[in-house]
Structures are given as structure tokens and as C-alpha cells.
Amino acid sequence: QVQLVESGGGLVKPGGSLRLSCAASGFTFSDYYMTWIRQAPGKGLEWVSYISSTGSAIHYADSVKGRFTISRANAKNSLYLQMNSLKAEDTAVYYCARRGGISRIDYWGQGTLVTVSS
Amino acid sequence: QSALTQPASVSGSPGQSITISCTGTSSDVGGYNYVSWYQQHPGKAPQLMIYDVNNRPSGVSNRFSASKSGNTASLTISGLQAEDEADYYCSSYASSDTYVFGTGTKVTVL
Fold first, then answer.
1. What is the Cα–Cα distance from A24 to A93, expressed in whole angstroms?
2. Which residues does chain A have with pLDDT short of 70?
3. How does pLDDT run across A53-78, given as a tens digit for each residue?
4. Which residue in B99, B101, B106 has the most chain A C-beta atoms within 10 A of its own C-beta, making it the best mutation to test that interface?
5. DSSP 8-state secondary structure symbol assigned to residue B102
6. Which helix (H) or strand (E) holds A10?
7. Range A97-100 contact pairs with CB under 8 angstroms and sequence separation of 24 or more
8. pLDDT value for B1
9. What single string gives the DSSP state of each residue in A23-60?
10. Rounded CA separation B69/B76 (Å)
11. Do B89 and A61 count as a contact with CB atoms less than 8 A apart?
């Protein structure tokens, strides 16, 4: 069965950096676009970034452009999100998710909490 | 990349039908047939309920249906059940190869 397991969340000071990882299993990782989506405490979902199956196409939300970098290692079935210059408003649960089709985010991890606070 | 507009809350009695609206613009909902809907129970990850405007993934009850007209998409839950009580989010593919989510709707079963 498809499994997505995020790790790397935690407490970081404003201006700091953090790298999230997502370990995928149960499907051919290299066949799928992958995406990161976040949810601030008590708030709605916000799309963050996606990456194509080969990594050749990458897109970001305006709110993170220039600060976050998405990447993947198909040989390791892993997705990453490097987050730099973190702000308090980046505090959220970050979900790794598989994009099964253009509008089909069909599998989600359980999320990892990132807290940006001094 | 402004969030799509959803009602904050919708409620209904067991067995009734409810409809949740999702209003965007011609740059997202109105411009593409790539609207999806997600159900999220407290403390859980979202679950895909509808994709490509009106398609249900396998395993999702046929009590869930959806449509789109112009810049507004809608999700209908018929035969409302206690287990349907959750937050619901719409999402749309948007211009510049981005995505936008709705503001979210809390569904309460009375």
C-alpha cells in the first residue's frame, strides 16, 4: 500500500533553516509528480510546491518562492523540502503528497509540524 | 494566488443533502476542469473525495457528487451521515502552473 512518511519538522528560530524529508513506498516513486502542502494551526490548506517525476519541472507558491527548494531522489524514493529564511507565518503542519493527476492529490502523509518561533 | 471562497460552515440533519460552494475566478476554477475536493477529519490528513470536477476515486461513497458552473464549483453530500462531519476543502489548478485551495467549510451533522 502507498505510504508517505514525513520527517524533519521541529522548532526553529525566525531566519533559520530546516529540511523536510518524505519517504515514499508502495508505488513507483519515479512515475509520479510530488507536492508539499501545509496547514497552519487551526487554518486551511495551502499549496507550497510541486515537482515533476524527473525533477525537470518545479513550481512554488508566491509565499515561499526564493526561500524554499523542493527536490527529489528517485533512487531513494524520497522527496525533500529545504526551507530557508523561515518566518513565523511558515509555522504549519507540512504534508507530503502524491499527485496522481493534475487535480488528483490522491495520497497524503500524516504531516510533520514546523514551528518558527524565538 | 488568492484562496477560493467557501462558506465557513454548513449543517444538516442525518439523511438530508447539503451543498458546499467554492468560488474562484477565470484564472482557476473557471479556466480549467481541474477542481478537486478533500475531506479532513480533526487531526487527520486530508482525503481526496472528488477530482477533475466530478470524478470519484474508488472507495468514495456515491453520496458525494460535484459539479462546476463558470467560476463556481459545488460539492453535494446526499443522505448525510454522522461520519460526514468534517472539514471540506476545494482546490483548483490555476494559471502559471500553480494550485489554490479553498478557505474550507466545516460540515456539522445536527
1. 18
2. none
3. 999 999 999 999 999 999 999 999 99
4. B99
5. B
6. strand A10-12
7. A97/A4, A97/A34, A97/A35, A97/A36, A97/A37, A98/A2, A98/A4, A98/A24, A98/A27, A98/A32, A98/A33, A98/A34, A98/A35, A99/A32, A99/A33, A99/A34, A99/A35, A99/A50, A100/A32, A100/B51
8. 73
9. EEESS-GGGSEEEEEEE-TTS-EEEEEEE-SSS--EEE
10. 14
11. no
Q: CA of B55: which chain A residue's CA is closest?
A: A104
The rounded distance, in Å, linking the Cα atoms of A68 and A60 is 8
Residue with cell 509520479: A32
Of B35, B26, B11, B53, the C-alpha closest to B99 is B35
CA distances from B8 to A44, B13, B76, B82, B106 (A): 11, 18, 16, 19, 6
Q: How many residues does chain A have?
A: 118
Residue A41 and residue A92 in contact, taking contact as beta carbons nearer than 8 Å: yes
DSSP tag of B30: G
For β-strands A58-60 and A45-51, DSSP reports them as: antiparallel
